Amino acid sequence: MSLERFSYDDAIVRKFIWASVVWGAVGMLVGVIIAMQLADWHLNFGTSWLTFGRLRPLHTNAVIFAFAGNAFFAGIYYSTQRLLKARMFSDGLSKLHFWGWQAIIVAAAITLPLGLSTAKEYAELEWPIDIAIAVVWVIFAINFFGTIAKRRERHLYVAIWFYIATVITVAILHIFNSLAIPVGLFKSYSVYAGVQDALVQWWYGHNAVAFFLTTPFLGLMYYFMPKAADGPIYSYRLSIIHFWSLIFLYIWTGPHHLLYTSLPDWAQTVGMLFSLMLIAPSWGGMINGLLTLRGGWDKLRQDPILKFMVVAITFYGMSTFEGPMLSIKSLNKLSHYTDWTISHVHGGALGWVGFLSFGCIYWMLPRLYRTKLYSEKLANMHFWLGLVGILIYMIAMYISGITQGLMWLDFDDQGYLVYPNFVETVVNLIPFYYLRALGGALYLIGAFIMVFNMVKTAKSATDLSDQTAEAPARKTDPLVGKFHMRLEGAPLMFTVGVTVAVLIGGILEIVPMLAIESNVPSISSVKPYSPLELIGRDIYIREGCNNCHSQMVRPIRAETERYGEYSKAGEFVYDHPFLWGSKRTGPDLHRVGGRYPNLWHLRHMEDPRTVVAGSIMPNYAWLLQADTDYSDIQDVVSAMTKLGVPYNETDIRQAEANARAQAAAIGQDLAQSGAQDMADKEISALIAYLQRLGTDIKE
Amino acid sequence: MSEDRKVDVPHDYDGIEELDNDLPRWWLGIFWVTTLFAVFYWPYYHWINPQKLPEAAWKAENAAREAERAAAPAETTESLDLDARYAAGGWEETGKTVFDTYCVPCHAADGGGGIGPNLTDDYYIHGGTLANIHQVISDGVVEKGMMSWKPVLKPDDLDAVAFFIRSLRGTTPASGIAPQGELVDESGQFVTQE
């Protein structure tokens, strides 16, 4: 059999690696900054674009899409070529993919601090960037499937299965969650409203965890772990079962982010049960990864790469057990909206994704630069700093999460809340917020050490030419063996199978929610927002208030006592997008309307501490200075009508006049109570929105 | 590792080998237990025990807590003899603590007012008798931004803060805001001008 000679594109892998660590360091730095802001509210220096609400999306997007994304692109480009025995389909597409992705990240880094946001978690980027993401993803997909088409090794190794699932599912999730109606270049409104928007968002959000932070990394694990450990994968049949069950079950689990909300009960139960069933499929991956090291545990002591990988897989196992536990409704009642969730996420992000990426990068580096790693000692130091950092981080957040959760639910023996004053439950947490920032900082220092180690290693490179390889041409005789073995030789069928598996859950959950009216019982007193309230709502989104405040009172006595009547699905039918939030750093705001006088809100937004001692909410003093922008309110109202919000012709025509009139009334009330000239400032629009929240059902 | 089964198909996965060991039993156990749990949980929760669904459970919990409140010893203090209990004293400390915790943001630390009215002068919007004051605090004036404190404060605490407010009348705040409402007489009744 004659061998064909070819070379691997390693330059593109090097590029992705550098992008990953550089953006990673930036993203983690922003993380440490916002962690400090919760410990000490001064730390945004009174600058709007440095406030927590705007930087938190920057942090999450940077670590997910820039750090983790570039890391697995590097790993995929490295391993796919070698597993398929082929150079990437097109060097040009590889470059387009790389530069396109970096351009998207730069756009995100500029627009998010400016407050251009859709408010949907991990999908905050505005519509032009969303389109760019879709285009770049398609470029990646063509390049990837093109490589499969010209492969020399006929069968697809399990790592490739996971990559296929990633490429297909991320595209589906991104497109359906991002559907929106634009108003101008920088603003858009989700086509879904309220409960439906929430379901679609968390179908996306949880599966971003699944198909952006899990499946690609499981693929990397299946390639790099046996390479680094120099041992065989434990069980092929386990990989088949856990692969298919994982991708099939994962898609259903989104509603576990919406337990006890206005989402219909059936959907909540589906989310909880599928989450529980996901333990075994997830652990299948852990078993296959860890048992690769069977008989070679002693290697672990010397090799920092194996340490990173084994700890990563261990964190994967822990997170995928903790996740299902947090999906159990009675535990979720306590944990939801608290720092416990934050702890959970960071076990996955810092432990699994971060450490696995580091392990793979340390492994690839000497091979990509044909040299030795500059310093094994520094790599070990990175490992220990990182590990201690994660542990401090997670323990601090467990304690603060559980403490606050219990305080929220605590009743005394006379049936009254023990801590009716929300801020009392906040001030206790400050020491843990410092501790968390310390943990994050240690992890960040580790990452800087790695960058230094990488620079030194790259400098000692001997040869940057592409590595060559040879392999026989792909066989063409009929596929033999068991069903799955044959399927592995038929990429098209395989991909169709994956697509079907991931679509079933999505369709069975979302379509009934969109189509069956009884899922959202309508409430006749619920009316669309006034134009000024819409402007206020956009300010709320711009400032990212939803990153600290929920708007969803759960049917739990402790909440109805604290906030008022629990939220009903029918109250959100005009909410494009929904703003339920996922974290209560501050109190729920769904029933805040009418609770305080306008002047209270003005003083509170100017400096929360003048009315609530001990508050950690940032100052929003600029809202009292900035003029309200009424210029596109007519377009916004008319966009809303396209989404089915029942405004009539006059409403649209008179949108601006209405907004100004309502603002004047609020301004007059404020002036009477002592704050002059506020009518046309943004604060009045925001107050209009806050005072409206949750009041419709009172009538 | 002699019992390991290998996948024997001539692949070249860049040198990576795969064994074909059986699925670990405990792993299969988790799979089956969680799946069976799911199958049984649905009918158990949704059909057999619909009273456990969130809204029904909320109603039940509410009823239980209301019963606790009703049974609480606070019932003994009858608000009818407010004046006598005000005169008897003993509420000063509690009253001040409650005021400092909840009322200061709007009425200022010394009662001089700010977002809410000045509580030290002889002018009241809702009347200055203990009964008036008690009622405003209890029911609030929600549309004006004074919330109803009955759900938050225990009956004893509510009484104490009402007494405390009454005691603020006639004190001199550092910077009180202008009087709102109408003049009241010594007893707190509105002075009706003809």
Biggest pleated-sheet summary of chain B: 2 strands, antiparallel
Order the strands across the largest sheet of chain A as they lie in space: 1-4
Number of strands of chain B: 2
Give the CA-based shape of chain B.
Answer: elongated
DSSP strand content of chain A = under 5%
CATH class of the largest domain in chain B: Mainly Alpha
Structural class of chain A: mainly alpha
Q: What is the succession of H and E elements of chain B?
A: HHHHEHHE
Helix content of chain A: 55-70%
In short:
Chain A is an all-alpha fold and 699 residues long. Chain A has helices at 11-39, 52-84, 91-111, 127-149, 158-178, 194-213, 215-229, 236-250, 265-277, 279-290, 299-302, 304-326, 329-335, 339-369, 376-409, 424-427, 430-459, 483-487, 491-515, 531-543, 557-562, 598-606, 633-642, 649-653, 655-672, 682-692, and strands at residues 3-7, 180-182, 188-190, 468-472.
Task: Report what the structure shows.
The complex is a heterodimer of chains A (699) and B (194). In chain A, helix 5 runs parallel beside helix 8 and helix 20 packs across helix 26. In chain A, a hairpin with a 5-residue loop joins strand 2 and strand 3. Chain A is an all-alpha fold and 699 residues long. Chain A is built from 26 helices and four strands. Chain B has 194 residues and is an all-alpha fold. Chain B has two domains: 69 residues, no CATH class; 102 residues, Cytochrome c-like domain (Cytochrome Bc1 Complex, Chain D, domain 2). In chain B, strands 1-2 form a two-stranded antiparallel ribbon. Chain B starts with 24 loop residues before the first helix and ends in an 11-residue tail after the last strand. The model of chain B has no long low-confidence stretch (mean pLDDT 87). The interface between A and B is large, with 71 and 60 residues.
Topology:
The complex is a heterodimer of chains A (699) and B (194).
Chain A: E1 3-7, H1 11-39, H2 52-84, H3 91-111, H4 127-149, H5 158-178, E2 180-182, E3 188-190, H6 194-213, H7 215-229, H8 236-250, H9 265-277, H10 279-290, H11 299-302, H12 304-326, H13 329-335, H14 339-369, H15 376-409, H16 424-427, H17 430-459, E4 468-472, H18 483-487, H19 491-515, H20 531-543, H21 557-562, H22 598-606, H23 633-642, H24 649-653, H25 655-672, H26 682-692
Antiparallel strand pairs in A: 1-4, 2-3
Helix pairs in contact in A: 1-2, 1-3, 1-17, 2-3, 2-7, 2-14, 3-4, 4-5, 5-6, 5-7, 5-8, 5-19, 6-19, 7-12, 7-14, 8-10, 8-19, 10-12, 12-14, 12-15, 14-15, 14-17, 15-17, 20-23, 20-26, 22-26, 25-26
Chain B: H1 25-48, H2 54-71, H3 82-88, H4 92-107, E1 123-124, H5 130-139, H6 155-168, E2 182-183
Antiparallel strand pairs in B: 1-2
